[in-house]
Write a structure and sequence with these properties.
Chain lengths: ~425, ~375, ~375, ~425
């Protein structure tokens, strides 16, 4: 008798067969010397290509949603199926065998992090209004958390929200906002009471990205593309019913979002950069450069591969734990640390193999193209939490080491700003 | 998850947890630091009473011996749990030589007579054994010639030569020896007290793991298995042994991490626990990261060697685990000394025992140069 | 201090300090970040006015040109000071190609006619030049054949082939080319606007240092020096060039360190300057350590190349400096981005310009695999 | 006309030629396969050998002293020559060409660090009594600073000194005291006023090591030898005229000692461990193990050698600066950090080359002997200041980064101890 999971797999397979084309073999492994000569972590495309890809993403997400695969773990009331995270993973595994549009623009931030936050903290009519729209692919959501002066200290947001009748009026600046240029809504952390300690005076508001006063400017990163934005908020009016959680209780809302960010980390082993650093591709790189018999190069390849494989095994283990019912905790940061480390080492390894042909574009396939990856890897050690923040989390929350003595968690935020400026 | 495992089901976490608790309790009682130091200073290097109790009370020596030869027929996933605990407690014991090297070689050889003679006694804890691969480089490279030769027929061979470094070679009741014979390298078994066999205990970097030199002068030996399959047998033994060692290394690394985290929490400097300083805090986080990755590698290798569904190829996963766990344990054992500062490099503190174990384990099957090339060979580069 | 230097006296620290101050003031005025970004976006890749002012106001192009050819006849110790400052300011300039590569090659060739023709103009800042070594691996390994061949006699040769990556190759007034000729590899000089020469500017990892491809189709060339001494000439050019580059790398690394230290002092997080956190503080200390060691290596190489009494052999010290400074600059440029966090990987922040320069410099003469083996060759291992 | 330095060199040469034998060539480079098979950083010998070596050291120091080379930089009143640090270095350079006893037991702590401290802070009759005796080789001095509970936080000494008439009565425990087993005097930091902040209530006393209540116990380190001691002080009486500096002003005295410790660091490039990791010796190691053509091994050798050579160049530079009149500052810690790093890497490199023959002593020359170095290198990163302390010094004193907020420099020491115990 087929189990419930077997049935789920069968339905999913049926849906995919009907709506997508199955890839042949290992089609997601790039082939040496064939196809586009681009090795990148970021996905920057020219605007017209970008727009077309977003449209394809939305369309595919709608197809998923209409067939019951848009939000596998979500409540039925919002078009979900109320199945487990494992079902979600299983579906992803199946879908990876098909040639379908990448829906990262919708899912990485919006569906993966903001959706669960709205579900946990918004009023019912706000859920009704946005959740189906998001999971149907109509509404893209972004995360308006980071600010230039706050950096790793997320709770130091300075963007102000002041109550005015039924609305809040928001003024401030956000940064490192991915997908903001495509987004319809943004979850925004605002300082509503500077007289409280910094974690206590924050309120979370759901901002309409098309509202007057919202301006999105692309932020060009060192590798040349603009995968992030600055978002300027000037007198933006947000109705109070778009508030998530309590007034001054936004930090709890932010934690829901951040927990969901960590939970998505395990899947980072994929992507074009990771595929370019896969053993078959690197082996061809060595062969093409006559370095397959060089002991020093072989040694570094073996070290790199061992760490890559072990990181992959770590992800397998996380999935097994998930299957066994254990939710991932802060130890998931290990995966992110290793991923950044492996990609960084891999990029420098490839650079060394390519040698001088990395410094100027001679047009030879598989040489200068490594520069883009090399210029992307520094960001990996910073985005989504610097290495230092990750290590603090591991040491304090997993190993139970004592926290650094801190004064700034208890003082009123207003005074911190003052002393902060004075102390610099 | 599209691996090559042949479909064995994995044991349940509950069963493994019970096994772990039993071993842990046993070792807490029998192999605390005082017991380890006593054993490492003793003539034989391990406590024979503990060895018998391991068999009588927990049946650990029987765990992976096939059921038809008096064992439980379990796999590396279960054995890994045991070895992890032994590594954490630094237990001095002929377990790796007897249960891992020798028993695996006998099973892999397919020699039923040898299996019937040796395995029930190993399972019962009444026989210790080891394996000597006296190649020239110390890296199990039998193709380049061996330092022991076998003469005579397929029955009743005579061995001559030297095995320069043999794990537990001075105390093992029987020794399996790979020797160059008329049909190429072949596996043999000799008695530990055979006439013509001189066994010299050696000073070791790791005092909790003994080594000896064997001088063989016309030693009577029984052939084990078919020389034609020797390469396959040794490959299998190496996969199993490096996977078992990886689990032990993870246990050792975990002990170092725990010691550092505890010390960082308790030790006060400049009016604060040293664990509040980021330099120490992040060192501990780095150690944790290494331990987690090593742990995953060791477990995946165990699943692969056991042929569990979805696991990668055994040869690859074992080589990955050997490399990753060797380096993780070495790094963590060294950092543990740094976290402890001055007290960490005294003889009285256990930190150096782990450091010694880590380095000796890393080099046991050839060391970094060998295991990196072996890994590439296994993935076909 | 028992080196092999031939006894040249070292210049005084006071003189070097004055030179440094003059160059630093000049670059502060002419090569701030805005000027660097303007130059790197311009067609020729550098500001020709600044190039002329460097000559007219400071005479930098003349510094190391021999006195008999219109220069000051100074050495790498002095030039190192200049290049360190240029590296710190990331000056886009054909200085490395003209003054270091080309002028050194001409001087080392011993060809008086070529020297008289080229060096006074280089010293005066009215001629830019470069050197193309179109070997197959990009590592100056001329023994394995070259991609440009020379036909015709010792006067008036004709060059054909490709030089795939030539520093400042699109703008240099003259190009020295090593080409395979009837007497083996030999040095030639061609005009930048010679008929049959096609120059294609290339996209570069480091936008502050331009590269071009040269296609040579029957280009008229003058031979320079004796082909028999070519290996010695190239060895000397490589020693001088890697030593000069090392100084530039130290300057770049120093700029990154200064930026990190400044940012760590000013940037507030969690109510404190981030420099109070040991993670950031120790990162800066590590950067400092690398910079100090690199600085010492670059200076020692300069003294060695200048033959100053007590200095080590030039070939060894230059190879040490190339290796150490390449890796120090790369590491420090990468860590600088980490200290800066998010702002550090924006296009608008200068951190990536140093990162690009660091990687491009590391690979300019072949990269790690090449420079490590070169070092071993120089010490005779 | 010969310069003053030329004349100094001539006198020194004359003295050395008359009293010692010149080495032939590079006699201090160990030869592969020849001589004692021992590779060590520490100098542990059996007691009888140790005693003989100390006697030789004393004798050679007396010869130096009687010929005007016992204290080149010291005042004439105490048998010195009042010459510069450069003269001292030049003499050391010359002496290195001769086969003379190693006088480290006298000089590393006593003459290098304690002597200058006594000179700066002791009363005249104490200087008269001890300084000539020390520089004549009669009195060996040790440094009684480190304590088990203080660790890196040197100013947290708990050893008490209580005034009793003209004496102080000292009780406490010191640790990591080198040469204490041979020493006649020890410079001891004592807590004299626990009601002051920790740096302010310390007094420095010169302790007679043969006084009742002083007990020296060897401390065995992980490599097996006992190069350090624990020193137990139980009711030890020290006359007040043996005090250095003011009552409660001992931290300033300690700083004089520590500054002189840093100044001696540059010379660490020598020693048997550094020689074993020299290029010629390592080349022979590779040759003996058939690894001279292995690319991976060559690469690591080149990396190691490059760092060793650059560290040596850094020391050359420090000496040139000294010649130019610049006193070494805190940046000298770089040399110590690099030295520890190079030796550590070198030991692990050699271990890898030797492979399994490192784990058991087969008697083969140049194999198992690397274990002692491997077991010594962890100490290098801790002794004389941990890496963490060194990095703090570099970041704060050289780069000018702000200090960590600290509460313990202002609170009375008595309260720190209390809160310290509560907090652990």
């Amino acid at each position: 008798m087929p189990s419930e999971m077997d049935e789920f797999v069968a339905t999913a397979r049926e849906f995919l067969d009907a709506n997508a084309t199955r890839r042949s073999g290992s089609a997601d492994l790039p082939e040496w010397g064939v196809g586009e000569d681009r090795i990148t972590y970021f996905s920057t495309d020219p605007p017209e290509v970008d727009a077309a890809k977003v449209a394809e993403s939305r369309a595919w997400q709608r197809t998923r949603y209409e067939n019951g695969f848009g939000w596998v773990t979500g409540p039925r009331a919002y078009g979900g199926r109320e199945l487990s995270t494992l079902h979600d993973l299983v579906y992803d595994g199946l879908e990876a065998e098909y040639d379908v549009p990448d829906t990262g623009v919708l899912s990485l931030i919006g569906l993966g992090m903001i959706g669960p936050t709205i579900l946990a903290h918004a009023r019912d009519h706000i859920k009704d209004r946005y959740l189906p729209a998001m999971y149907r692919g109509d509404a893209i959501a972004c995360q308006l958390f980071s600010e230039p002066s706050a950096g790793s200290d997320l709770a130091s947001v300075e963007t102000r929200a002041v109550r005015d009748g039924d609305d809040w009026v928001v003024d401030g600046q956000k940064v490192w906002t991915s997908v903001a240029q495509h987004a319809q809504i943004g979850l925004c952390l605002c300082r509503t009471n500077p007289d409280l300690p910094k974690h206590k005076g924050i309120t979370a508001l759901l901002v309409d990205m098309s509202a007057p006063g919202v301006e999105v400017r692309p932020l060009r990163q060192m590798s040349g593309g603009a995968d992030f934005n600055e978002v300027f908020l000037t007198g933006v009016r947000v109705p109070d019913d778009h508030r998530l959680g309590e007034v001054d209780g936004g930090w709890r809302v932010a934690l829901t979002t951040l927990m969901n960010e960590r939970a998505t980390v395990g899947g980072e082993g994929a992507g074009p950069a990771a595929r370019a650093l896969s053993l078959p591709f690197l082996t061809e790189l060595l062969r093409a450069n006559g370095r397959l018999d060089d002991g020093a190069t072989r040694r570094r390849l073996a070290e790199l591969y061992a760490d890559q494989a072990a990181t992959e095994y770590l992800n397998h283990q996380a999935i097994r734990k998930l299957r066994a019912g254990t939710q991932p905790g802060p130890e998931a940061s290990v995966s992110k640390l290793m991923y950044a480390r492996n990609l960084t080492r891999g990029a420098h390894f490839a650079a060394e193999v390519v040698g001088p042909r990395l410094i100027a574009d001679t047009g030879e396939w598989g040489t200068y193209s490594w520069t883009e990856l090399l210029l992307s890897t520094p960001a990996l050690r910073i985005l989504g939490g610097t290495e230092e923040i990750m290590k603090n989390i591991l040491a304090e929350r997993v190993l139970g080491l004592p926290k650094e003595p801190s004064i700034d968690s208890r003082s009123p935020f207003r005074e911190l700003r003052r002393s902060g400026t004075a102390g610099s | 998850m599209n691996g090559t495992g042949t479909g064995t089901a994995a044991p349940s976490e509950t069963e493994l947890g019970e096994l772990r608790a039993a071993v842990r309790n046993f070792l807490a009682a029998k192999s605390d630091e005082h017991a380890v130091r006593t054993a490492m200073g003793s003539e034989r290097g391990h406590d024979e009473k503990v060895w018998r109790q391991m068999a009588d009370q927990l049946g650990l020596q029987a765990l992976t011996v096939p059921a038809e030869h008096g064992g439980d027929g379990l796999g590396l996933v279960e054995l890994g749990v045991v070895l992890e605990e032994m590594g954490e407690a630094l237990l001095p014991s002929p377990f790796l030589s007897t249960v891992v090297l020798a028993a695996t070689a006998v099973v892999a050889s397919g020699d039923v007579a040898a299996a019937e003679r040796l395995l029930p006694a190993i399972a019962a804890g009444t026989l210790t054994a080891t394996l000597a691969v006296p190649d020239h480089a110390g890296s199990w490279d039998v193709g380049a010639g061996l330092r022991v030769t076998a003469t005579g027929g397929r029955t009743g061979a005579v061995l001559d030569g030297i095995a320069p470094i043999v794990l537990d070679g001075a105390t093992a009741d029987v020794v399996l020896v790979v020797a160059d014979g008329p049909d190429g390298p072949a596996l043999h078994v000799i008695d530990g007290d055979a006439p013509g066999l001189a066994r010299t205990p050696l000073r070791t970097l790791d005092p909790t793991r003994r080594m000896a030199r064997l001088d063989l002068d016309g030693v009577h030996a029984e052939p084990v298995g078919d020389p034609a399959s020797l390469t396959a047998v040794l490959d299998r033994v190496l996969d199993v042994a490096t996977t078992a060692l990886a689990a032990e290394q993870v246990g050792g690394a975990r002990a170092c991490l725990a010691a550092s985290a505890r010390y960082a929490t308790e030790r006060m400097q400049f009016g604060r626990p040293i664990g509040t300083f980021q330099a120490v805090k992040h060192k501990c986080a780095d150690m944790y990261t290494r331990v987690q990755v090593a742990d995953a590698a060791a477990r995946e290798a165990a699943r692969a060697v056991d042929g569990i569904e979805g696991a990668p190829a055994a040869g690859i996963a074992a080589a990955v685990a050997h490399s990753v766990c060797s380096e993780a344990f070495m790094a963590v054992a060294a950092e543990n000394i740094q976290v402890h500062g001055g007290i960490g490099f005294t003889w009285e503190h256990p930190a150096h025992l782990y450091y010694r174990r880590a380095k000796a384990s890393q080099l046991l099957f050839g060391g970094p140069a060998v295991y990196h090339e072996r890994l590439l060979a296994r993935v076909g580069v």
